[in-house]
C-alpha cells in the first residue's frame, strides 16, 4: 500500500556495520527499522514479535545465518530474507539462497542501492548485487527461482492446513476398543477425518503439516476436539489420542488435555515418528502419568522404531500393528512375532491390543494367543458421537 513504510529487521552482530545500516534506514522515510538482532536466536524472536516485511541477515551471523533464515521464516512466513554479504562470500550466499533467501545485497552498498534492494524484495522480486561475481548471475537466478518456488509451495501448504482448522474441515470420529473375552467396549480411539481438499487420508494431512512446521499445531487442534467431545463417551471407558514425540514435549499439551479426565486418557506414540531424546521424552511422559494419563506404543511390530519405543518407554499398552494381525491365522511368521510381543507385554506388565481385527477367526486366534484388547471393523467402525451426546 502506497505510503506504508517497508518494515525491516537487521540481523548483524558487527556493531559498526549494523549501526551504519540502521542509520541509513532511519534516514529514509519509506522504511521502518523494527529491530537489530545480534544472533540467530534473537533474530527469530524479533521476527516473531514484529513480523517484518524484509530481514537483512549477515551471512556470518553468530548461531548460523541459514539457521536464522529458517527460524525467521518459521516465525514470520511472509518475511522476505536478504543475505548481507561481502564480495568474497560466494559460498555463504549460495547456502543462504538454498535455504530460502530471496537474494543478497553487498555490504557497504550505497544507501540508494540498499533502499532499492529492500524495496524490491518487499515487492517479491529476487535481488542480486553483481559485485559478488558477474559469472555467477545465472546460477544464482536459477537457485533463487527454485527457492522461491519451494517457498511459495510451503506457504500454499501452510495456508491449506490453516484453512482446514479455520473452516472446521477437521472432524473427530471414535472407534471402540473392546475386551476380547467379554466383548465389552472399554475405550475409544479418537481418529481425525478431513473434509478439505485434496481428498486424502489423515496420515497424509498430518505428514504435510509436520513438513511445513504446523504438525504440532494441527495435532493439538485434533486432541483438543477429541477431549472436548470425550464427555459424550461412557464414563467407564478410556479415550486414546495420537500424539507425536514432538507434540508430547510441547508445554501446551497438558492444557489441551485439560478438558478431558486425564486418568481416562491414553496417549499413543506412533512407530512413524522418531524420538530424538528418550530421557527428555520420558520426562514429558512422567508429567502426564503423574496426573493419571497412560502411554501406548502404536504400530508395534511395524518397524525398528516401535520396538525401541517398547524397550525405552515402559508403556502401559502395546498396540499390535495391523500388518501383524492381518491373516494372523494363516501366517506362522506373523503369529510368531505377535506371540513374542504378547509375551513381552505379559512379562513387563503391559496390556496388548490388536488393531485391524476384521474377522471372528482372527479374533479367536488373537484371544488364544493371550491378547487382551482389540479394535477393528469386525468389532466396531469409527463413528461420530450421536448429536445429543456431542
Structural class: alpha/beta
Tally of helical runs: 15
Q: What is the N-to-C order of secondary-structure elements (H for helix, E for strand)?
A: EHEHEHEHEHHEEHHEHHEHEHEHHEHE
Characterize the overall form: elongated
Strand order of the largest sheet: 6-7-8-9-10-11-12-13
* Main sheet summary: 8 strands, mixed, barrel
**In percent, how helical is the residue content?**
40-55%
Share of residues in strands: 15-25%
Secondary structure topology:
Blueprint (H helix, E strand, L loop, with lengths): L5 E6 L3 H12 L4 E7 L2 H11 L3 E5 L6 H11 L4 E6 L4 H10 L4 E3 L4 H12 L14 H30 L3 E10 L5 E10 L7 H10 L3 H15 L8 E5 L2 H4 L4 H5 L7 E5 L8 H12 L4 E7 L3 H10 L3 E4 L1 H4 L6 H17 L2 E4 L5 H10 L3 E2 L16
Parallel strand pairs: 1-2, 1-3, 3-4, 4-5, 7-8, 8-9, 9-10, 10-11, 11-12, 12-13
Antiparallel strand pairs: 6-7, 6-13
Helix pairs in contact: 2-3, 4-6, 7-8
